[in-house]
Protein backbone atom coordinates (compact mmCIF):
# COMPACT_ATOMS: atom_id res chain seq x y z
CA UNK A 1 0.00 0.00 0.00
CA UNK A 2 1.21 3.42 -0.86
CA UNK A 3 2.20 4.88 2.46
CA UNK A 4 2.03 8.42 1.12
CA UNK A 5 -1.70 7.80 0.64
CA UNK A 6 -2.18 6.97 4.28
CA UNK A 7 0.49 8.47 6.47
CA UNK A 8 0.49 12.17 5.99
CA UNK A 9 1.87 15.11 7.81
CA UNK A 10 -0.19 15.73 10.91
CA UNK A 11 -1.13 19.18 9.64
CA UNK A 12 -1.56 18.49 5.91
CA UNK A 13 -3.65 15.44 4.90
CA UNK A 14 -2.97 13.91 1.49
CA UNK A 15 -5.81 13.65 -1.06
CA UNK A 16 -5.51 11.72 -4.32
CA UNK A 17 -7.61 11.78 -7.50
CA UNK A 18 -7.67 8.67 -9.66
CA UNK A 19 -7.43 8.68 -13.44
CA UNK A 20 -9.06 6.12 -15.73
CA UNK A 21 -5.70 4.45 -16.25
CA UNK A 22 -5.06 4.11 -12.50
CA UNK A 23 -8.56 2.74 -11.95
CA UNK A 24 -8.06 0.18 -14.71
CA UNK A 25 -4.67 -0.76 -13.23
CA UNK A 26 -6.07 -1.46 -9.76
CA UNK A 27 -9.12 -3.31 -11.07
CA UNK A 28 -7.17 -5.51 -13.50
CA UNK A 29 -4.57 -6.40 -10.87
CA UNK A 30 -7.31 -7.10 -8.33
CA UNK A 31 -9.31 -9.34 -10.67
CA UNK A 32 -6.31 -11.31 -11.96
CA UNK A 33 -4.88 -11.67 -8.45
CA UNK A 34 -8.23 -12.82 -7.07
CA UNK A 35 -8.59 -15.48 -9.78
CA UNK A 36 -5.13 -16.99 -9.36
CA UNK A 37 -5.10 -16.79 -5.55
CA UNK A 38 -8.51 -18.49 -5.50
CA UNK A 39 -7.15 -21.25 -7.75
CA UNK A 40 -4.16 -21.82 -5.46
CA UNK A 41 -6.31 -21.75 -2.33
CA UNK A 42 -8.89 -24.10 -3.84
CA UNK A 43 -6.24 -26.65 -4.86
CA UNK A 44 -4.53 -26.43 -1.46
CA UNK A 45 -7.72 -26.91 0.56
CA UNK A 46 -9.13 -29.69 -1.61
CA UNK A 47 -6.16 -31.78 -2.69
CA UNK A 48 -3.19 -31.17 -0.36
CA UNK A 49 -2.73 -33.25 2.77
CA UNK A 50 -1.15 -30.91 5.30
CA UNK A 51 -0.27 -33.86 7.55
CA UNK A 52 2.07 -35.10 4.86
CA UNK A 53 3.09 -31.61 3.64
CA UNK A 54 2.84 -29.32 6.69
CA UNK A 55 4.76 -26.48 5.00
CA UNK A 56 1.78 -25.98 2.71
CA UNK A 57 0.04 -24.38 5.69
CA UNK A 58 2.51 -21.50 5.29
CA UNK A 59 1.70 -21.28 1.57
CA UNK A 60 -2.02 -21.21 2.41
CA UNK A 61 -1.47 -18.34 4.85
CA UNK A 62 0.45 -16.35 2.23
CA UNK A 63 -2.26 -17.03 -0.34
CA UNK A 64 -5.06 -15.95 2.01
CA UNK A 65 -3.19 -12.73 2.79
CA UNK A 66 -2.66 -11.95 -0.91
CA UNK A 67 -6.27 -12.84 -1.73
CA UNK A 68 -7.58 -10.44 0.90
CA UNK A 69 -5.28 -7.73 -0.46
CA UNK A 70 -6.69 -8.23 -3.96
CA UNK A 71 -10.31 -8.18 -2.77
CA UNK A 72 -10.22 -5.59 -0.01
CA UNK A 73 -7.54 -3.23 -1.33
CA UNK A 74 -7.01 -3.43 -5.10
CA UNK A 75 -10.65 -3.71 -6.14
CA UNK A 76 -11.81 -0.92 -3.85
CA UNK A 77 -8.86 1.50 -3.91
CA UNK A 78 -10.24 3.81 -6.66
CA UNK A 79 -13.48 4.32 -4.68
CA UNK A 80 -11.92 4.65 -1.23
CA UNK A 81 -13.06 8.27 -0.92
CA UNK A 82 -16.72 7.12 -1.06
CA UNK A 83 -16.36 4.73 1.89
CA UNK A 84 -18.23 5.35 5.09
CA UNK A 85 -15.66 6.84 7.52
CA UNK A 86 -16.57 4.12 10.02
CA UNK A 87 -15.08 1.55 7.63
CA UNK A 88 -11.68 3.24 7.39
CA UNK A 89 -10.15 1.72 10.51
CA UNK A 90 -11.18 -1.89 9.63
CA UNK A 91 -10.02 -1.26 6.06
CA UNK A 92 -6.51 -0.25 7.05
CA UNK A 93 -6.38 -2.93 9.74
CA UNK A 94 -7.04 -5.64 7.14
CA UNK A 95 -4.56 -4.46 4.52
CA UNK A 96 -1.74 -3.71 6.96
CA UNK A 97 -2.22 -7.09 8.65
CA UNK A 98 -2.30 -8.95 5.32
CA UNK A 99 0.87 -7.33 4.04
CA UNK A 100 2.73 -8.03 7.28
CA UNK A 101 1.41 -11.59 7.35
CA UNK A 102 2.64 -12.26 3.82
CA UNK A 103 6.14 -11.01 4.68
CA UNK A 104 6.34 -12.89 7.98
CA UNK A 105 5.12 -16.15 6.43
CA UNK A 106 7.86 -15.83 3.83
CA UNK A 107 10.30 -15.85 6.75
CA UNK A 108 8.59 -18.95 8.17
CA UNK A 109 8.90 -20.62 4.77
CA UNK A 110 12.64 -19.94 4.74
CA UNK A 111 13.00 -21.23 8.31
CA UNK A 112 11.11 -24.38 7.29
CA UNK A 113 13.50 -25.03 4.40
CA UNK A 114 16.51 -24.29 6.61
CA UNK A 115 15.34 -26.98 9.04
CA UNK A 116 14.78 -29.33 6.11
CA UNK A 117 18.34 -28.77 4.85
CA UNK A 118 20.03 -28.91 8.24
CA UNK A 119 18.04 -31.73 9.83
CA UNK A 120 16.59 -33.86 7.02
CA UNK A 121 16.24 -37.00 9.16
CA UNK A 122 14.40 -35.18 11.96
CA UNK A 123 12.44 -32.72 9.83
CA UNK A 124 9.02 -34.35 10.30
CA UNK A 125 9.63 -34.58 14.03
CA UNK A 126 10.42 -30.87 14.24
CA UNK A 127 7.94 -29.52 11.70
CA UNK A 128 4.45 -30.90 12.27
CA UNK A 129 0.99 -29.84 11.21
CA UNK A 130 -0.01 -29.03 14.79
CA UNK A 131 3.00 -26.80 15.40
CA UNK A 132 2.52 -24.91 12.16
CA UNK A 133 -1.15 -24.36 12.94
CA UNK A 134 -0.16 -22.88 16.29
CA UNK A 135 2.47 -20.69 14.60
CA UNK A 136 -0.11 -19.56 12.04
CA UNK A 137 -2.63 -18.66 14.73
CA UNK A 138 0.04 -16.79 16.72
CA UNK A 139 1.18 -14.95 13.57
CA UNK A 140 -2.28 -13.76 12.61
CA UNK A 141 -3.23 -12.96 16.22
CA UNK A 142 -0.03 -11.05 16.96
CA UNK A 143 -0.17 -9.03 13.74
CA UNK A 144 -3.85 -8.19 14.23
CA UNK A 145 -3.09 -6.96 17.76
CA UNK A 146 -0.12 -4.90 16.50
CA UNK A 147 -2.15 -3.28 13.75
CA UNK A 148 -5.09 -2.59 16.05
CA UNK A 149 -2.62 -0.56 18.11
CA UNK A 150 -1.37 1.26 14.97
CA UNK A 151 -4.86 1.91 13.62
CA UNK A 152 -5.96 3.34 16.96
CA UNK A 153 -3.69 6.34 16.23
CA UNK A 154 -5.29 6.90 12.81
CA UNK A 155 -7.59 9.92 12.50
CA UNK A 156 -10.10 10.15 9.66
CA UNK A 157 -10.87 13.65 8.39
CA UNK A 158 -14.06 13.21 6.39
CA UNK A 159 -13.08 10.24 4.18
CA UNK A 160 -10.68 7.31 4.12
CA UNK A 161 -8.40 9.24 1.77
CA UNK A 162 -8.10 12.10 4.24
CA UNK A 163 -6.31 10.40 7.10
CA UNK A 164 -3.89 11.72 9.68
CA UNK A 165 -1.32 9.51 11.36
CA UNK A 166 1.87 10.53 13.08
CA UNK A 167 4.67 9.35 10.74
CA UNK A 168 6.79 8.26 13.70
CA UNK A 169 4.03 5.86 14.75
CA UNK A 170 3.59 4.47 11.26
CA UNK A 171 7.35 4.10 10.92
CA UNK A 172 7.04 0.74 12.68
CA UNK A 173 5.13 -0.54 9.66
CA UNK A 174 7.77 -0.08 6.91
CA UNK A 175 10.57 -1.04 9.33
CA UNK A 176 8.76 -4.35 9.88
CA UNK A 177 8.54 -4.94 6.11
CA UNK A 178 12.21 -4.15 5.51
CA UNK A 179 13.42 -6.34 8.37
CA UNK A 180 11.25 -9.30 7.29
CA UNK A 181 12.21 -9.07 3.61
CA UNK A 182 15.94 -8.76 4.35
CA UNK A 183 15.67 -11.65 6.82
CA UNK A 184 13.99 -13.81 4.18
CA UNK A 185 16.63 -12.95 1.61
CA UNK A 186 19.46 -13.67 4.07
CA UNK A 187 17.96 -17.05 5.00
CA UNK A 188 17.52 -17.96 1.33
CA UNK A 189 21.17 -17.05 0.66
CA UNK A 190 22.23 -19.21 3.63
CA UNK A 191 20.10 -22.11 2.40
CA UNK A 192 21.60 -21.81 -1.09
CA UNK A 193 25.14 -21.87 0.29
CA UNK A 194 24.41 -24.92 2.46
CA UNK A 195 22.72 -26.79 -0.40
CA UNK A 196 25.50 -25.87 -2.85
CA UNK A 197 28.22 -27.10 -0.49
CA UNK A 198 26.66 -30.48 0.25
CA UNK A 199 29.38 -32.88 -0.86
CA UNK A 200 27.79 -36.19 0.13
CA UNK A 201 24.96 -35.89 -2.39
CA UNK A 202 25.02 -37.24 -5.92
CA UNK A 203 24.41 -34.89 -8.82
CA UNK A 204 20.91 -36.29 -9.36
CA UNK A 205 19.98 -35.79 -5.69
CA UNK A 206 21.44 -32.28 -5.72
CA UNK A 207 19.38 -31.39 -8.80
CA UNK A 208 16.23 -32.73 -7.14
CA UNK A 209 16.97 -30.71 -4.00
CA UNK A 210 17.35 -27.45 -5.94
CA UNK A 211 14.08 -28.14 -7.77
CA UNK A 212 12.41 -28.38 -4.37
CA UNK A 213 14.03 -25.12 -3.32
CA UNK A 214 13.07 -23.31 -6.54
CA UNK A 215 9.73 -22.07 -5.16
CA UNK A 216 11.43 -20.65 -2.07
CA UNK A 217 14.18 -18.88 -4.01
CA UNK A 218 11.83 -17.47 -6.66
CA UNK A 219 9.28 -16.23 -4.10
CA UNK A 220 11.96 -14.64 -1.93
CA UNK A 221 13.73 -12.94 -4.85
CA UNK A 222 10.43 -11.73 -6.32
CA UNK A 223 9.39 -10.23 -2.98
CA UNK A 224 12.85 -8.73 -2.49
CA UNK A 225 12.83 -6.90 -5.83
CA UNK A 226 9.14 -5.90 -5.91
CA UNK A 227 8.52 -4.90 -2.28
CA UNK A 228 11.82 -3.75 -0.80
CA UNK A 229 12.62 -0.71 -3.05
CA UNK A 230 9.39 1.12 -2.19
CA UNK A 231 9.76 0.44 1.53
CA UNK A 232 13.36 1.66 1.54
CA UNK A 233 12.41 4.82 -0.34
CA UNK A 234 9.72 5.57 2.22
CA UNK A 235 12.11 5.05 5.12
CA UNK A 236 14.76 7.15 3.38
CA UNK A 237 12.31 10.02 2.92
CA UNK A 238 11.41 9.95 6.62
CA UNK A 239 15.02 10.35 7.65
CA UNK A 240 15.93 12.73 4.84
CA UNK A 241 12.95 15.03 5.31
CA UNK A 242 11.49 17.49 2.81
CA UNK A 243 14.82 17.94 1.00
CA UNK A 244 14.47 14.52 -0.64
CA UNK A 245 10.83 14.87 -1.68
CA UNK A 246 11.34 16.23 -5.16
CA UNK A 247 9.96 15.17 -8.55
CA UNK A 248 12.49 12.35 -8.90
CA UNK A 249 11.48 10.95 -5.52
CA UNK A 250 7.76 11.01 -6.32
CA UNK A 251 8.39 9.40 -9.72
CA UNK A 252 10.45 6.62 -8.12
CA UNK A 253 7.94 5.95 -5.34
CA UNK A 254 5.06 5.81 -7.83
CA UNK A 255 6.99 3.43 -10.08
CA UNK A 256 8.05 1.08 -7.29
CA UNK A 257 4.60 1.17 -5.73
CA UNK A 258 3.09 0.00 -9.02
CA UNK A 259 5.71 -2.76 -9.02
CA UNK A 260 4.64 -3.73 -5.50
CA UNK A 261 1.01 -4.10 -6.63
CA UNK A 262 2.04 -6.20 -9.64
CA UNK A 263 4.18 -8.31 -7.30
CA UNK A 264 1.18 -9.21 -5.14
CA UNK A 265 -0.79 -10.13 -8.27
CA UNK A 266 2.01 -12.38 -9.62
CA UNK A 267 2.66 -14.24 -6.32
CA UNK A 268 0.06 -17.00 -6.98
CA UNK A 269 1.34 -17.41 -10.55
CA UNK A 270 4.80 -18.14 -9.12
CA UNK A 271 3.25 -20.67 -6.74
CA UNK A 272 1.52 -22.50 -9.60
CA UNK A 273 4.56 -22.31 -11.88
CA UNK A 274 7.17 -23.49 -9.37
CA UNK A 275 5.23 -26.06 -7.32
CA UNK A 276 4.50 -29.29 -9.13
CA UNK A 277 1.41 -30.22 -7.15
CA UNK A 278 -0.42 -27.01 -8.08
CA UNK A 279 0.73 -27.12 -11.68
CA UNK A 280 -0.40 -30.72 -12.22
CA UNK A 281 -3.75 -30.19 -10.55
CA UNK A 282 -4.44 -27.15 -12.68
CA UNK A 283 -3.50 -29.05 -15.84
CA UNK A 284 -5.83 -31.90 -14.83
CA UNK A 285 -8.70 -29.48 -14.20
CA UNK A 286 -8.25 -27.89 -17.63
CA UNK A 287 -7.95 -31.37 -19.14
CA UNK A 288 -11.25 -32.43 -17.59
CA UNK A 289 -12.95 -29.23 -18.73
CA UNK A 290 -11.70 -29.79 -22.28
CA UNK A 291 -12.79 -33.45 -22.16
CA UNK A 292 -16.24 -32.51 -20.88
CA UNK A 293 -16.55 -29.83 -23.53
CA UNK A 294 -15.59 -32.30 -26.27
CA UNK A 295 -18.08 -34.84 -24.91
CA UNK A 296 -20.88 -32.27 -24.88
CA UNK A 297 -20.09 -31.25 -28.47
CA UNK A 298 -20.10 -34.91 -29.54
CA UNK A 299 -23.42 -35.58 -27.77
CA UNK A 300 -25.02 -32.55 -29.41
CA UNK A 301 -23.71 -33.64 -32.80
CA UNK A 302 -25.04 -37.19 -32.34
CA UNK A 303 -28.38 -35.86 -31.15
CA UNK A 304 -28.70 -33.64 -34.22
CA UNK A 305 -27.77 -36.55 -36.48
CA UNK A 306 -30.37 -38.82 -34.87
CA UNK A 307 -33.07 -36.17 -35.26
CA UNK A 308 -32.46 -35.71 -39.00
CA UNK A 309 -35.10 -37.36 -41.24
CA UNK A 310 -33.92 -40.47 -43.09
CA UNK A 311 -32.73 -39.99 -46.61
CA UNK A 312 -34.95 -41.61 -49.32
CA UNK A 313 -33.36 -43.10 -52.37
CA UNK A 314 -35.26 -41.85 -55.44
CA UNK A 315 -36.88 -44.49 -57.65
CA UNK A 316 -35.24 -44.97 -61.00
CA UNK A 317 -37.70 -45.12 -63.88
CA UNK A 318 -35.33 -46.72 -66.34
CA UNK A 319 -35.21 -50.07 -64.52
State the fourth-level CATH superfamily: Rhodopsin 7-helix transmembrane proteins
Termini separation comes to: 89 Å
Strand order of the largest sheet: 1-2
| Estimated share of beta-strand residues | under 5%
Q: Give the % helix.
A: over 70%
Q: Which spans of ≥5 residues are poorly predicted at pLDDT below 50? A: 3-15, 312-319
**How would you sum up the global shape?**
globular
CATH topology: Rhopdopsin 7-helix transmembrane proteins
Number of DSSP helical runs: 11
Order of SSEs? HHHHHHEEHHHHH
- Give the CATH level 1 class: Mainly Alpha
- How many separate structural domains? 1
Sheet bearing the most strands, described?
2 strands, antiparallel
Seen as an oligomer or otherwise, the chain set is: single chain
CA radius of gyration is: 26 Å
CATH architecture: Up-down Bundle
Annotation, overall tally of beta strands: 2
Instruction: Report the structural category.
Output: mainly alpha
User: Mean pLDDT, rounded to whole units?
Assistant: 84
